[in-house]
Write a structure and sequence with these properties.
By secondary structure, this protein is α+β, with helices and mostly antiparallel strands. The chain has 2 domains: 51 residues; 212 residues, Glucose Permease (Domain IIA) (Distorted Sandwich), CATH 2.70.70. The chain is built from 5 helices and 13 strands. Strands 2, 3, 5, 6, 7, 8, 10, 11 and 13 form a 9-stranded antiparallel sheet that branches. A two-stranded parallel sheet has the order 1-12. Strand 6 and strand 7 form a beta hairpin. The two termini are 39 Å apart. This is M23 family metallopeptidase. InterPro entries: Cell_wall_metabolism_enzyme (IPR050570), Dup_hybrid_motif (IPR011055), M23ase_b-sheet_dom (IPR016047).
Length: 299
């Protein structure tokens, strides 16, 4: 077990210890441990969490050219939390997110426009109100499916001030303690070869078209966009990393063929790639190694 993995396990154990001590103080008559001692495991967990979040991908990954892969979507989208704007893109190196990107669908038709962030009302919206919901997701390269899960529900949006406060103060903390899979929600991990793995998060419940062990071709549909996990609205979270375990993985830079890496709020259009596969997963074709690294596109 890696040091990074061990640290994440200890991080969650310490947070659970804090909650247990607080509940014992409140519910158990004559509880012998003073209230203030409950903050010791909390403080230790925060130190560990901060250390992991600031622990970068290392010199090898940070110095390597971006790995070129196809875009995971088709059509018109815009970027949020992009590594072209800042690194780490999500404010943490944890869970292999150093070079992760979030994208939301931005259809040209005004009647399908994405709902704006609300100050107070509506507090929440259903997933179908967002154009990204149920959009197909495609394999970014020939690969082997390492992980695929889609049993978690697609929750209501968190794109208002009250809902965002709930996400940040309550829901997000609970998901953090529960583990990586509760943060990314339904997700897919593909082994692209050469020590490179692609991860798609917040996949729609029941939308998987593949399973672990399948071999997929670049451009083959593998799932659909949803709103599961630690998500404010239906969107695609995509990242490359150096291993399949989110607790232990470190991020790897990427660039999308004919798109590059769009910066925050930059709109781009992803067209189908030549020879994109749309058939069923293969169980006998050899796995494809990641294409030669290419240069990142600045926006």
């Amino acid at each position: 077990m890696s040091i990074r993995k061990t640290a994440m396990i200890l991080f969650r154990i310490l947070q659970l210890a804090f909650l247990a001590m607080v509940l014992a103080e409140l519910l158990v008559p004559g509880y012998p441990i003073a209230w203030a001692w409950a903050f010791l495991p909390l403080l230790l967990s925060l130190v560990i969490g901060l250390t992991v979040s600031r622990s970068g991908p290392g010199q090898e990954a940070a110095g390597r050219p971006p790995v070129e892969v196809d875009p995971p979507v088709r059509g018109r989208w815009s970027a949020m939390n992009s590594p072209a704007t800042k690194v780490p893109s999500h404010g943490t190196h944890g869970y292999g997110q150093t070079y992760a990107i979030d994208i939301v669908a931005e259809p040209a038709a005004s009647e399908n426009s994405r709902p704006a962030f609300a100050k107070l009302w509506p507090v929440v919206r259903r997933s179908r109100a967002f154009p990204a919901y149920d959009e197909p997701l495609f394999a970014v390269a020939d690969a082997t499916v390492v992980h695929a899960s889609d049993w978690m529900r697609d929750h209501l949006s968190r794109n208002s001030l009250p809902a965002l406060a709930y996400l940040m103060l309550i829901e997000g903390a609970v998901r953090e303690i529960s583990g990586a899979r509760w943060i990314v929600g339904n997700h897919v991990v593909l082994d692209l070869g050469d020590g490179v793995y692609a991860m798609y998060a917040h996949v729609r419940r029941g939308s998987l078209k593949i399973k672990p062990g399948d071999r997929v071709r670049a451009g083959q549909q593998i799932a659909r966009c949803g709103n599961s996990g630690n998500s404010t609205e239906p969107h695609v979270h995509f990242q490359l990393m150096d291993g399949p375990d989110l607790d232990a993985a470190r991020g790897i830079p990427f660039t999308w063929s004919e798109v590059g890496v769009p910066a925050n709020k930059e709109t781009f259009t992803a067209a189908p790639q030549r020879g994109a596969g749309n058939g069923a997963p293969s169980h006998d074709r050899p796995a494809h190694e990641a294409p030669p690294p290419g240069g990142a596109h600045g926006a």
